[in-house]
């Protein structure tokens, strides 16, 4: 079981839908999060992409020397980036980080944003362009010289002279819920990421993609993208969930949902269907809360509960085939510590937030630790 964290390059806050509790996200703050995730035992970190975010490649590269083992899940954008240029970027990053690159394939689901970047393809055309992109990207990183006269991409003699550390290339991650997305995943992807839907819906996706991949003689691993709200008790966790959206009013929800409705993303449509734009029934599955998606696009659900409860929900997903959990929480620095302290002790291979050496807790007189009953 792998657990990733998240770099909030689009901003961070204690609350959603308001400027109250907001904090500046700069390189110093992102370094704090990266070093915390690295030290606490997270396996990797997702860096988001889009016009509301800092550039993920520059951000990730700047954090290589600040970390030792943390892997970086960084986006390539078919249709916006050249596949050979993207391959050279990936190879350089992988070498300079000693093999710590993971690649997130993002076709995009917001036509307004994509048009502002010069991409005017329809939904299914974007996936055909992504297929051509990945044929070139995978081929050149495997050491091949690639010629392709495609519908959207045409290259002749494409190659990469300096290979990546990981062979044949850094692992490819990808998420998408449409028919075209599932076909792309089955053909090219190493790890398919679903957003946090109820287990039954996730099981259907996994079964479908497994079957499509098997028909091609391939196997695919699976992950899930979720927020997490973990506290010492279930009651405290649910209070924290309500506090997160306490400043969100109906007009803010309506405006956000109207914006999301203009997207052609099937995944976004499925996220919106979980709550219907209303806050009265946000627990859409045991301990799966859709409140984040009232005002946030993309991943809109959170696991809510104490450490044992959240771990139990994770095991339910793991039994379906999920082996990678990509988490985030507001604010991201403090919540990284909460997850490590309260959740990791209940997960296989994780040991909580205490370092392997050094004192635990406050050191008091004569270097003795306080007893549990001491005040």
UniProtKB/TrEMBL annotation:
Coiled-coil ranges (or none): none
Instruction: Please give the catalytic activity noted in the UniProt record.
Output: an alkanesulfonate + FMNH2 + O2 = an aldehyde + FMN + sulfite + H2O + 2 H(+)
Source domain of life: Bacteria
Q: Which UniProt keywords apply?
A: Flavoprotein, FMN, Monooxygenase, Oxidoreductase
Q: Which residues form the Luciferase-like domain?
A: 1-323
Q: What are the EC numbers? A: 1.14.14.5
Molecular function (GO) terms listed? monooxygenase activity
Which HAMAP family does the UniProt entry name for this protein? Answer: Alkanesulf_monooxygen
Give the record's family classification: Belongs to the SsuD family.
* PANTHER family with a match to the protein in the record: ALKANESULFONATE MONOOXYGENASE, ALKANESULFONATE MONOOXYGENASE-RELATED
Q: Per its database record, what is this protein's job? A: Catalyzes the desulfonation of aliphatic sulfonates.
The protein here is known as Alkanesulfonate monooxygenase
Give the organism, scientific name.
Crenobacter oryzisoli
Gene, per the UniProt record: ssuD
